[in-house]
From TrEMBL:
This is Lycopene cyclase family protein. Residues 411-430 are annotated as: Disordered. It comes from the Bacteria. InterPro entries: FAD/NAD-bd_sf. Residues 421-430 have a biased composition (Basic and acidic residues). It holds the Pfam family Lycopene_cycl. Gene3D superfamilies: FAD/NAD(P)-binding domain (3.50.50.60). Signal peptide: none annotated.
Amino acid sequence: MSRPGAAAGPAAHTGTDADVVVVGAGAAGLSLVRHLLDVSSPSALSVAVVEPPPGPVRSPERTWCFWEGEEGAGAGGSGAGLGAPVTASWRRLLVRGPGGEALGGDSPRRYLMVRSADFIRAMDARLAAAGSVTRITGTVTAVGDGPHGARVSGTDAGGRPFALTGRWVFDSRPPRVLPPAHTTLLQHFRGWFVRTAEDRFDPGTAELMDLRTPQPRRGLSFAYVLPLTPREALVEYTEFSPSPLSVGEYEAALRHYTEHVRPLGEFTVTGAEQGVIPMTDGRFARRAGHSVFRIGTAGGATRPSTGYTFATVQRQSAQVAAALAAGRTPLPPRPHARRHLAMDAALLRALATGRVDGADFFARLFRRNRLDSVLRFLDGRSAFREEVAIGLRSPIWPMARSLAELPLLPRRPPAAVPRPGDPHQRKAHC
């Protein structure tokens, strides 16, 4: 059992090891701990964090991207509000249509990138200085209610069994099996960090979607280009489809894009990352027991139509921390509005059936609507009137048919989801 920080004493609730036990130390788990430290005094809540040992179970390094908001960075891009440095930010956003049409413009909010290694390093330092936080390295094998809250058991890095009792337990581990759904697609991708021999990028412009990539028969593909300097960028190939590609297929798609669609000239690949994000209208349970809750992707934080997760995790964590500080039951709030989930379900169905052309749909979304309205919609912050306007400018009949038939469709059996260590590693992309 590894405890880098100062060990906390037993929780005030008799028979427990901590007031709060957080399972997992990725974006969702560490974000919850950060918000707990922000709202409570050093001795108010005792917290135990169970993180996986180095190896295939631990998530690889990745990037998290999101629009600036209350969870964003300070004005100078330092990430003071987030507790970690921001790698890069962009005010101008670009989408290229299938024919090369440039869409987008200046955004009212910056688009931010945070590297997971920087976030974890900042949290390591903060947790080491927090006397109320205990850290445990181990693999969790069971989580369930107990007589004094909930019990977490597993084996530590040395193979020895351990058990913790927490008044409340928050499980942030990615789901191994997705819930039954009308439609399930995967957003899967592989990205190269590249360094070019000549200036090829505009560091002030994030290219959210280049839809000139070859399109699958049903679903969507696009390239995603986030410049860091005039000669450095993350270039990513992404698909929305039922199953991931092989590494060789991703590499071929990236070579085609960087040689023929958006030629970069001579360049070096300095790093790579790959992942899978579920896009499903399945219902994720936020509560797994009287004292056990699910957060992050496991609690439905991932937006079904876009895959964006990070900003939702921050909002969810802040509300959970506020409930705990006030002595209320810390049930994580619903991560997305019901009307947004209904629209997302219709879009997933329309894409999966081929009723809408994915590339044309997203090009039309940015071409026919105000950029600030589209960004609010993608981030789950749009007003109803904006959503009506966006809907009227979408392919109305295919979307209406897809929405109308959903109640008549059975929810299909759950599917396995690739996890860290599998051939297709999960990345909490945004």
